[in-house]
């Protein structure tokens, strides 16, 4: 990866640019004024020739395989497509010496690929990234680790039990369309057969208590991923954590009820202050009414992790309950990947400054 030697802003290549996650990433590139000299937008064949406006400029979407784009060593490639596509592009980025940031989950179990949430383990990027590939965790793991990191530092963490309520965006555009179509059908005819192509059961007006494939132990692949990623990002490989992941009929915001058993007693007031001091975190605790939230519908800022229902269990002052909700595409998805890229550029800049001093 030669991005550390470049003085000009990088070229950004977005793979899966017309999907929900790729679109959110492009919005953030503009809003956060992420430095770049050129955008290359790649997507599936059905998006070939589509034109997308980014920051007032018209870009034509390419159908391009990893072999069709001449990647360079100062490119940053965001992998927002599915697993198989991302694997091929990652190989091409490695061969070109480019920096690739994977959001597909293809590398979440690869211990040779750093899995990074900058606020938690950004120090991993202070040393050279072996082959220029960095993985961004799932949105839920990103959100959980941002909170648990500070709880671990202050109180220690003995056990975590998470029940997650995940939006239709995890199923891609087809999942969102099925939810909206199913809701419309159900309102028109309560006895109508609702679509269920992306989940085992219809999602509209329903909850589906399994996200991902079911494993031999009856946990799901999403639950397994959440456990593994949380342990890796926190650097706690033996953390006692378990999860139940559920699909809910919400378009784009994830939520979770989280029980944390700390090593030492917790003061509720101190915990509220601690969580409220974290960047891009809002705690809802001003009064009894606010303490009933937040909800996916009322949590307005899409780039913030919204935290409420902060409670210390009366019979055990080491056990704490939290409720969180956040925009899964932006706050803990695309924005984390963009922050990873920003940190990589910052480290590269410090390296250049050190060499010229």
Please describe what this structure looks like:
The protein is an alpha/beta fold and 357 residues long. It folds into two domains: 11-136 and 333-354, NAD(P)-binding Rossmann-like Domain (Rossmann fold, 3-Layer(aba) Sandwich); 141-326, Dihydrodipicolinate Reductase, domain 2, CATH 3.30.360. It is built from eight helices and 14 strands. A six-stranded parallel beta sheet has the order 5-2-1-6-7-8, with helices on both faces. Strands 10-9-11-14-13-12 form a six-stranded mixed beta sheet, with helices on one face. The protein has a two-stranded antiparallel sheet with strand order 3-4. Helix 1 (20-31) packs across helix 8, helix 4 (139-155) packs across helix 6 (221-234) and helix 4 packs across helix 8 (330-356). The longest helix is centred in the last third of the chain and has 27 residues, at 330-356. 44% of the residues are buried.
Chain-wise SSE layout:
Elements: E1 11-15, H1 20-31, E2 38-43, E3 51-54, E4 57-60, E5 62-63, E6 75-79, H2 83-96, E7 99-102, H3 118-121, E8 133-135, H4 139-155, E9 157-166, H5 172-188, H6 221-234, E10 240-247, E11 253-262, H7 268-276, E12 281-283, E13 305-312, E14 319-327, H8 330-356
Helix pairs in contact: 1-8, 4-6, 4-8
